[in-house]
Amino acid sequence: MRNDNNLLYNMYQKSGISKSVLDYARQVCNSLEERFRTIDETAEYNQLKVMQAFQENRVSAEHMNGSTGYGYNDDGRDTLERVYAHIFRCEDALVRSQITCGTHALTLALSSILRPGDELFSPVGKPYDTLEGIIGIHGKKEPGSLREFGITYAQADLKEDSSLDYEAIKNALNDRTKLVTIQRSKGYAMRKTLSVKQIGELITFIKKHAPHVICMVDNCYGEFVDTIEPAEVGADLVVGSLIKNLGGGIAPMGGYLAGRKDLIELAANRLTAPGLGKEVGASLGTNPSFYQGLFFAPTVVASALKSAIFAAHLYEGLGFTTSPGATEERHDIIQAVALGSPERIIAFCEGIQAGSPVDSYVAPEPYAMPGYHSDVIMAAGNFIQGSSIELSADAPIEPPYSVYFQGGLTWQHGKFGILMSLQRMVDKKLVDLP
Ligand SMILES: *Cc1c(COP(=O)(O)O)cnc(C)c1O
Q1: Does the C-beta of 384 come closer than 6 Å to ligand 1?
Q2: What does the pLDDT read at residue 54?
Q3: What is the reported pLDDT for 130?
Q4: Burial of 298 (0-12, 13-18, 19+ CB in 10 A)
Q5: Average of pLDDT values for 301-328?
Q6: Among the four 37, 172, 297, 350, which has the fewest Cβ within 10 Å?
Q7: Which helix (H) or strand (E) holds 55?
Q8: What pLDDT is stored for residue 139 in this prediction?
Q9: For ligand 1, is residue 195 a contact (CB within 6 Å)?
């Protein structure tokens, strides 16, 4: 290190990080330089992608102004949607503050495309938890679910090793299959995250056997991890949340859909009303934060990735199992660490919370949450409520006692939060340093 090391150590020690934890962390960091360089190169590529989209669409000072009321002629909003379409290499996009979250964005896509009698198909196993009620899986009687509208659902499970079961996929496709939903990230399941390349192979296979189907990708947590996005490998529609990767930690809310023009029109007609479509929807004051968040997103995603890789190495070095493994290639920003005991999970989450910029003085505790079989603990000291591009962690209190964490708006903060998590475990004598 070029700067005075003591100065930095003193600063960390003021925050309660001990010299032994710092020495161990330094050793880990030294081994990551090559890996970090690759991440920085991806960020550099994606920053240029964003810059070209801004410049070619002539983003201007006026675009930072918002609209009120109906939101007619909101040039800032409309140009932002063209910028998204450019970045995703597709025809059109819908990027709105009225889309409340990722689940809402996915619901819009599903409910605007599917009609009674159609079938929705997931070739990658069970979709993200929040979609179960929307689809009406397991006969769940969620009022307004797709099932209630006579839309059926089929799924092909992944094989034991997380690979795609192409035989089962081929067999499941039928005349009623209208829409295929492909979740890129593992979310909070035990399977592996799909690379964009794998998604491309899957879409090619599906279109070969059922050329008429529409392929949608749930892109949550995957944006800007790679240099290509799913529409470039054949996805008809790509969907995600703005309080994850693409909002760059700046967007205060929102979701996006990007893809084929006819599908974006259907979704817009569902979000507002048939015939009104994209023409209405006041942006109020959100345009600057949506633009600025997108501008920051490539480097914020890089910070989140570095934080995840650092944590994987740090905890693997202490004998814990991580997913993805420390040296594995990454396709999203989520990191799981199997800590093996409730005490360690709690200490980990306390450390993340204590290392947060907001609410650092509160102690997270496990509690019963709807939809979970066991108590859940969550740590998040966020600027934006529930934002998971900010450093955050959560864990169900059940075997194998894994904690899932993601985010880190800056690498320096991500590192600090993770060091706090380890320090907390060391203080409670729950781990031994090597
Ligand atoms: C987060 C997430 C969602 C849902 O997004 P919310 O904004 O939490 O509603 C859907 N799918 C995946 C894979 C996610 O990670």
Answers
A1: no
A2: 98
A3: 87
A4: buried
A5: 97
A6: 37
A7: helix 33-56
A8: 65
A9: no
Take atom 2 of ligand 1 and give the residue whose Cα is closest.
220
pLDDT at 1 over 60: no
User: Atom 7 (ligand 1): residue with closest C-alpha?
Assistant: 102
Contact assessment for residue 199 and residue 233, using Cβ atoms and an 8 Å cutoff: yes
Kindly tell me the sign of the dihedral angle through the C-alpha atoms of 417, 423, 427, 428. positive
If one counts every other C-beta atom within 10 angstroms of the C-beta of residue 360, the result is 12
What confidence category does residue 199 fall into, taking pLDDT thresholds of 50, 70 and 90? Answer: very high
Q: How far is the CA of 128 from the centre of ligand 1 (A)?
A: 7
Helices (H), ranges, 317-373: 342-354
Q: Which atom of ligand 1 is nearest to the CA of 184?
A: 13
Task: State mean pLDDT over 29-45.
Answer: 97
* 160-172 residues labelled b (16+ CB within 10 A) or e (exposed): eeeebbbeebeeb
For the Cβ of 134 lying below 6 angstroms from any atom of ligand 1, the answer is no
Residue with tokens 């609209």: 67
* Amino acid letter for position 396: P
Phi/psi of residue 97, nearest 5 degrees = -75, -20
pLDDT of residue 226 exceeding 70, the answer is yes
Nearest atom of ligand 1 to the alpha carbon of 183: 13
Q: Is the peptide bond before 400 cis (omega within 30 degrees of 0)?
A: yes
Q: Is the dihedral of CA 349, 350, 351, 355 positive or negative?
A: positive
Nearest CA to ligand 1 atom 3: 102
CA of 130 to the centre of ligand 1 (A): 8
- Under the banding of pLDDT at 50, 70 and 90, the label for residue 370 is confident
